Amino acid sequence: MSSTASWNGREAARRLRLRRWLQPGIGVKRWLLVAFVGMLLLALAGAHVIRQVTKDLEPGGAAQAVVDLITLQFLPFALRGLIIGGVGAGLVVLGAARAARNLTQPLRTSEETPLADVIYQKRFLARGPRIVAIGGGTGLSNLLRGLKDHTGNLTAIVTVADDGGSSGALREELGIPPVGDIRNCIAALADAEPLMSELLGYRFPGGHRVDGGPMETEPGGLGGHPVGNLLLAALTALEGGDFEEGVRRMNRVLAVRGQVVPASATPINLVARTRDGITVSGQSTIMRTTGIERVWIDPADVQAAEDAIAAIAEADVIVLGPGSLYTSVLPVLLIPAIREAVAAAPAMRLYVCNVAMQPGETEGYDLADHVEALSAHTQADLVDLVLANDGFDGDRPGSDEQWPADAVQLRWPPAGDEVPHLVTDRVASHAAPHHHDPERLAVAILRAWEREGQAMRRERTARIA
What we know:
Layout: H1 2-21, H2 29-54, H3 62-70, H4 77-104, H5 115-124, E1 131-135, H6 137-147, E2 154-158, H7 165-174, H8 180-189, H9 195-200, E3 208-209, E4 215-216, H10 227-238, H11 243-253, E5 259-262, E6 269-274, E7 279-281, H12 283-286, E8 292-298, H13 306-314, E9 317-320, H14 325-333, H15 336-344, E10 348-352, H16 367-377, E11 385-389, E12 421-425, H17 438-464
Parallel strand pairs: 1-2, 1-9, 2-5, 9-10, 10-11, 11-12
Antiparallel strand pairs: 3-4, 6-7, 6-8
Helix pairs in contact: 6-8, 6-17, 10-11, 13-15
């Protein structure tokens, strides 16, 4: 059974590579045709020269016999042409393939990367829409895994409010912003993913969990720290403490498709107030808190990363989420410069709502509740489109106690005068319906961009000009 599945997988990969060679606009087929026409003309010229040289040879002589042998005159005319044509075609294909392989060898990330994939990534994906994704956690890395197969122009702007686990320990010991979500996003965009995810996510033994929370580390030791977190901390140190440059260097080292940037080079503390008037501080605590009424960041006037502002200004699509509403998406948008840049951008602004409620911060929330909270913390017209899941037929593994949350219900519209356009699609994973399916989500976003986003961006660009 496993051998059959393996063969089917190889066959599917072979068909995919063939389709990529035939992809319109990849810039290969036209030049192969030009080269073939040139070689055909050279062959005709060679035949003309041979004819001129041999026309005066003595019939039956030794020179004529050699020419007849080389040109296969002893074979029937049709068979002679078939053999010479077949050998010629084979040599053309072999030579072109080997030449292209050697010329593109410096661009290949590994010996196992097919040539068709290299050209597809470098040429076709480079023409994809410029997409900026804002958030953090599992939701953002899932989104990036889906989008990277459709465009190479990706920027992930990641929250720096995490204060738990390895990220929190490095933040406290070294004074750098949290690196865990940044590590996960870089791994998701790496060409060698999921191998790179496994490597960067490897935790040195010795850590432990407290009350089901994030992995706690050993003070002053390696226990519980993932390799990727330590690598980011080391690159920051090599850059003299410049966290933004350390992240840029990590992007280059791992040759990711697109770029991952922190929302700020300054660690942010997240604070929340509940409907009961209780103030709660720290992202890891807020994510387990119910009845949240308001969240804010400290310091409130933190400076945004320059790369983040530049990417937002040039974007075609800005995607908010998916991810924890109060602890992943809003901490980025609460940075004044980022919120203002998103509001002023000509791009289509799309909010991806979670497919399931999160125990704690969004327990009992439906779709309208999510959008109302987002608008209340930013501005009413910040979002143009809301993308929500409308497929609730996935597997439900384990018992009710193991199931993390109920699906977000599609109550619509939210309160307020500025109501964004609602788009629904089947974007939840069938195997894990409390998470988005990366490919389905990417296709739904690109479909919305093609249907509405391009016209929206042209209109806004003209208005700004």
